[in-house]
Specification:
mainly alpha; two-stranded antiparallel sheet; globular; single chain
């Protein structure tokens, strides 16, 4: 455990130095993280205003609060490993990671934690500015705010493990960009990113809650907004735990099979 802690501390330092070495890329990436929910916010606010100030249970101010909170939740749970993994395998860089005495997943976990530590404070300031600009209405319920913390942590764990598992398709296909696009298309519609889930067709709502996508972004967002009862929140946390357990199992199985099939293409 002590060695693993030292590994994480060293990886934190490396990630911190790397991110500040490529500051322009970091800024461009953060702009992209803000623009997508901002576009949806403007669209739904306009539709709401044209519909008398509300759609379903969401007023114009509630839409603003929803997409601003969603922006922060998405940033906290977002990972880039799916885009990076095929390069590691194709160019043979994974071979170096396999020589280390620890599982490569720990490096990716540390990278993600440090990335969020650097970017979340900046995005939080941006979110506060957007909240004032769009007159966001956020009514936080104390109990749900407390449950939001484990819900957010479980959402990150679930999304990270799912995407880390999916990234390992590169062991067999080498190129996984098409698989990534399908995954993010489903995530866009079923996680609540394009619109609050309650405004989508019933069939989409059922699919979203049966599959893991909603539990990675939409659930913690609605939890903080007070759109879920305390009982519903506890049930949701239970569903998240079940999905995390399934994701851990998938990571272990797919990793073992993938390493056996691994053949470095590049170096």
């Amino acid at each position: 455990m002590k060695s693993l802690l030292q590994l994480y501390l060293q990886q934190f330092k490396t990630t911190f130095a790397t991110m500040f070495q490529y500051r322009a890329s970091l800024v461009i990436w953060m702009i992209g993280q803000v623009l997508e929910p901002l576009v949806y916010l403007i669209v739904w606010s306009t539709v709401s205003n044209g519909n008398g100030g509300s759609i379903g249970t969401y007023t114009t101010g509630a839409f603003a609060a929803y997409f601003i909170i969603l922006m922060l939740v998405n940033q906290f749970t977002y990972t880039w490993v799916m885009f990076d993994y095929e390069y590691r395998i194709r160019e043979g860089y994974l071979s170096f990671a396999l020589l280390k005495p620890v599982h490569p997943i720990h490096s990716d976990i540390a990278d993600n934690i440090m990335s969020k530590t650097i970017t979340l404070p900046i995005l939080t300031v941006i979110a506060i500015g957007l909240a004032f600009a769009f007159h966001a209405r956020l009514n936080v319920t104390p109990w749900l705010a407390v449950l939001f913390i484990p819900g957010l942590l479980l959402a990150f764990a679930l999304r990270f493990l799912l995407e880390w598992t999916l990234a390992q398709c590169a062991f067999w296909t080498t190129r996984v960009s098409a698989i990534n696009q399908i995954y993010f298309f489903l995530l866009l519609f079923l996680s609540g990113q394009i619109a609050p889930l309650s405004l989508l067709p019933r069939a989409v709502q059922i699919a979203a809650k049966v599959l893991p996508f909603y539990w990675t972004i939409g659930f913690p967002t609605e939890l903080l907004l007070g759109k879920i009862t305390v009982t519903g929140a506890l049930i949701g946390l239970g569903v998240q735990i079940i999905w995390v357990a399934i994701a851990v199992f998938l990571v272990r199985v797919v990793w073992r099979l993938g390493v056996k099939a691994y053949a470095a293409v590049g170096q």
